[in-house]
Specification:
By secondary structure, the chain is α/β, with parallel strands linked by helices.
Length: 441
């Protein structure tokens, strides 16, 4: 017989919040069992209601804050608490980045068994209107007789009803109702699945994913909207290869690194850094930590479009970029050519697979830069100790995999973890971006 699931208690419970979990929820213990409480901050005394109970932990939601943390602030966005895109708007931005720094340090200590000799000051930028890449959900709700455009509700599959988004670039974040009205007027309003948003220094591109072929009237409606707003609008009927410009026909997107006289061209579905303000500070910071010299040969792993490769090439003798996606490698080569950069070489390679015999591993390097995805760089780190690099800078988007890989570099390959710090790439979320410097004596 299946075990009957117990209903969570309906009576509110009072508790003191002990800490902040990595996902931004407050943590307390009731009768020795951990409870994760939405909307609660460390040090607060709250009254909460249970929303879910499991064997190992329970979940709850704040009903009343009885004693508030001094770091509690009024959320900037009216949709906070309903929309699931942000989890920390009720926490002062300075306290947010301090919590992220502690999360990184805890992971380094407990997962990697290492500690940095120095803690770098956090890298911050404007915490509002920063997000230049997003995937907006679209849904026509028959019962409401309207289209919703935006992000999912917190811990739910349905879309939140949003009037604006304070973290999205204003070109889109202030126009969510306009986008909803645009799609409401289309014959295919129930067949528009999502809108991919990509913002460059020069323009904002919207890619409409449609599940049926759009008729002439719907296409004309989108073209009129593009003319009125200045958006670049493309259509996508299937996979990434089906993205087709609708209006204008030429849709060049780019961002710049003015310090290095570098322009990076990209397409809407390409991976680029979400936060342009942080990215423009992060790249010089990484180069400073690497201490790039004119005689250096540098290896850039997970190189992408050349976000680090091209600025590195302005400072180093040669830069070798390695990336797993062949399309991105082709774009990186084109970006180097467009910038008049001739001291780079590129290789397409699966950096999470078998790299035995890879030609770029047969070369010696003075410095190495890694910018892996959330899964980290465990596989390629197994080869790094043989390359002879004196310095390594590791840019991370997940403290757990950074910590694991830092442990490998220190304990198996003879590096010191000289310094580490966090970057607020995603303000008001629990996402932790960090950077670490390793040296071999």
């Amino acid at each position: 017989m299946a075990r009957r699931r117990r209903k969570p208690p309906a009576t509110p419970v009072e508790a003191v919040i002990e800490s902040l979990a990595q996902d931004g929820r407050g943590v307390t213990h009731i009768d020795g069992k951990a409870v994760f409480v939405d909307g609660a901050l460390a040090g607060e005394r709250v009254r909460f209601i249970y929303t879910h109970q499991a064997r190992r932990h329970d979940e709850g939601r704040v009903e009343t804050v009885l004693e508030a943390s001094p770091d509690r602030v009024t959320p900037h966005c009216a949709h906070f608490g309903v929309c699931g895109a942000c989890s920390l708007q009720h926490l002062d931005p300075v306290a947010q980045i301090a919590a992220k720094q502690q999360s990184m340090l805890d992971a380094l200590k407990h997962i990697g068994g290492v500690q940095p000799e120095h803690i770098l000051a956090p890298l911050t930028a404007d915490p509002w209107g920063y997000r230049r890449k997003a995937r907006l959900g679209v849904r026509y709700v028959r019962k409401m007789g309207k289209v919703l455009v935006g992000f999912r509700e917190k811990r739910a599959n349905r879309l939140a009803e949003l009037e604006r988004c304070a973290v999205l670039h204003p070109s889109v974040g202030e126009r969510l109702p306009d986008l909803a009205a645009l799609i409401e007027g289309m014959a295919a309003r129930e067949q528009i699945a999502q809108i991919e948003v990509a913002v460059g220094d020069n323009a904002t591109q919207l890619v409409f994913r449609h599940l049926v072929e759009l008729d002439a009237a719907d296409r004309e409606r989108l073209i009129d909207f593009a003319k009125a707003t200045g958006f670049f609008i493309s259509l996508q009927s299937g996979g990434p290869e089906t993205v087709t410009p609708l209006y204008p026909k030429a849709q060049p997107l780019y961002y710049e690194h003015p310090v290095y006289d570098v322009r990076v061209d990209f397409q809407a579905l390409d991976f680029t850094q979400v936060n342009a303000g942080i990215n423009r500070k992060m790249v010089p910071w990484a180069l400073e930590l690497l201490d790039v010299q004119p005689e250096d040969v540098v290896l850039d792993l997970f190189a992408g479009l050349g976000n680090f490769t091209l600025p590195l090439a302005r400072r180093a003798k040669q830069v070798v970029g390695v990336e797993g996606d062949e399309v991105m490698v082709a774009r990186a080569k084109a970006n180097a050519l467009a910038n008049g950069i001739e001291n780079t070489a590129y290789h397409a390679a699966d950096l999470m697979g078998d790299m035995t015999g890879a030609p770029w591993l047969k070369q010696a390097y003075d410095k190495i830069l890694l910018d892996p995805p959330r899964l980290g760089a465990q596989e390629v780190i197994a080869h790094i100790g043989k390359l002879g690099a004196r310095r390594i800078v590791y840019v991370s988007c997940h403290p757990g995999t950074l910590a694991r890989d830092a442990g490998l570099l220190v304990k198996e390959h003879g590096y010191r973890l000289v310094s580490a710090g966090v970057m607020d790439m995603f303000p008001h979320t629990a996402h932790v971006e960090s950077i670490a410097l390793f040296e071999k004596d």
